[in-house]
Amino acid sequence: MSGFAELSDSFFRSSLADLRPYEPGKPVEEVQRELGLERVIKLASNEGPFGPFPEALQALAAASGELNRYPDGGAYRLRAALAEKHGVAFEEVALGAGADGVIDCLSQAVLEAGDEIVCGWPSFPSYVIYARKAGATARTVPLRDHRYDLDALLDAVTPQTKLVYVCHPNNPTGTMNTRAEFDAFFERVPERVLTVIDQAYFEYVEQPDYPDAIEEYAKAGRRVFVLRTFSKIYGLAGLRVGYGIGAAALVSALGKTRRAFDVTADAQAAALASLDAPSELERRRAVNAEGRAALERTLREHGLPPAGPAVANFLYAEVGEDARPFFEALLRLGVIVRPLHGFGAPGAVRITVGTPEENALLGEALSRLAVADVS
Questions:
Q1: Model's pTM, two decimal places?
Q2: Do 318 and 302 form a contact (C-beta atoms < 8 A)?
Q3: What sign results for the dihedral spanned by CA atoms 359, 361, 365, 366?
Q4: Domains and CATH numbers, the chain
Q5: What is the pLDDT of residues 9-25, one digit of tens each?
Q6: Which is nearest to 276 in space by CA: 67, 66, 84, 47?
């Protein structure tokens, strides 16, 4: 029996009462221990299947001797390199603990009770979670053919709307909107609204009709904030470093909400070194495209046609009214996928593109499930 004093619900902020926090998946080691499995593959969190770039590993080794020191709170070298990479001013680059951390800071800087955000649904839950934490209202708009319906987003904007989020490509469906659709959107979106384009999977996309929101909208003077991350193709998910490109006044406001040392010294060093490895970036993009096509074939062979065209490093498939039994059955076979209740799609799963071996093991597990269903 705990000796701690009890705290009533009224002690906490009312905006947290009905908030459902983001639910991370179980670690591989815990699943192995619980189920007595020798091997478990994780295809649940959209991580890249490869570790940090060789250049990043070298930078981490060099930085490790100075970890007794606090990191550069302003992340000067990394911000300067990102500003040069994108052709923007140093003051137009915001850093955070992953793109998710930037979203949190943005919500704190912009939203308060009575404000609204608009986003598609199902989509990345942090848009909704952080808005509600700030006491704001989240207006969610159903996807159309598993894609963001930009016209419907605009129709949902009210005088209280401050932020419109576009997840691009969308997590969890993996789909994108075209340049023409975005161009039409920006002709209609009210000037007072800030559009947040989340391009966390930007480096995976090869489609020529996929716009670079920094080049084509932010630098063209549109009222937009663009998110990117080092967590995916760069293989630095465990270090948590992401960034946003936007107006200097917005970046300054985010600096007031960000904790002083959110982006660690090793994260800064690894991210900075990763910017100098274009050949490895291209290799990973090509391997992902091959793996995504193979994974799509596997899912279709097992009666699970994915949403598409998918352009990132994951696929979305509907498996019934409740995806949890499917998830649990695969889990017992040593494959972790993501059921999407928290994303607004309780009947679907999201499956990350793994290595060729991991994708093959998923196919074997699906075949075993099919045999079990028949028997």
A1: 0.93
A2: no
A3: positive
A4: 15-51+278-374 (3.90.1150.10), 54-274 (3.40.640.10)
A5: 888 887 777 777 767 66
A6: 84
